Request: fold
Amino acid sequence: MTTMANNSEKKRVLVSGGAGYIGSHVTVELIEAGYDVVVADNMSNCDMTCFEGVKKITGRDDIPFVKIDCCDADSVNKLFSDYRIDAVIHFAAFKAVGESVAEPIKYYRNNLDSFLNILEASKTHGGCNVLFSSSATVYGEAEKLPVTEESPRLPATSPYGNTKQICEDILRDVVSATASLSGSEGPVKGIALRYFNPIGAHPSALIGELPRGVPNNLVPFITQTAIGKRECLSIFGNDYPTEDGTCLRDYIDIVDLAKAHVAAVSRMLDGKMKKDYEIFNIGTGRPVSVYELVTKFEKVNGLKLNYKFAPRRPGDVVAIWADTALANEELGWKAERSVEDTLASAWAWEKHLAEK
Reply:
């Protein structure tokens, strides 16, 4: 599905944390859908590799890039003063589950302050549409699967997951409180996308996941082990109550995920929201175990990985996957790429990095 910005004047979208993994793919899809994009990032968890890749993919050397820390309220306010912002997609947050368990203060301070500053600027600069990058972690250890948007939010299993729950609540409350504002201050409308496990890379192999240091996510650890950067892949836990003893996840292709953001932004900017605050699950609806993903990677790419089973990791839930019916119907969006194609793209990206 291709969604076009259909107004006579191009709408401008701010992508905070836009130089990172998800943000760079979303930036590509926004530009290809006809939007102007401003990328903001403090570069704490990435370098310019993916942003340069975005420029190559889109053929655009003029994409505005602003290096700021969204935890600095003055910098965020200046950004909104310098650019007319029609919508914000907020990615600027720390995201490692295990690290959040070890360093909760770091996660609460960064993830909450950055979002509060974005919302404050959105309100004080005449109102704005805010798309929040939420997560399936808000469901905790779900009692019934697959989860729908109406599934209860159970206690988070990590501080990272708790910051997602809190930020959803903040967005809901800000939307409600600003609904009647007009003039110099304006209403904030919001959508929270609860997405599951993004993996893979752009088909061009010019952008992909590029963790600093030891990866916290499974697929970059797989590809780094395959390429020889890591000696061995650890699969955390093989004693879970699942068919093969490893956790079950809903792995979604990064480009499919990026297109969901474009659909959601278009819904806001085209005035199609049914409520001023909406929530959508973004996944495939198909559970895949960690062990199954590892063996699929081996088969698709003709490789043999060195891996071992390790103790369970704090904060991990046993199983989670999405019911995506609401997003399919309301956003007109659906995950399309197979997990095999996605794993092939992840390996192509890793090989591209090795050639640089």
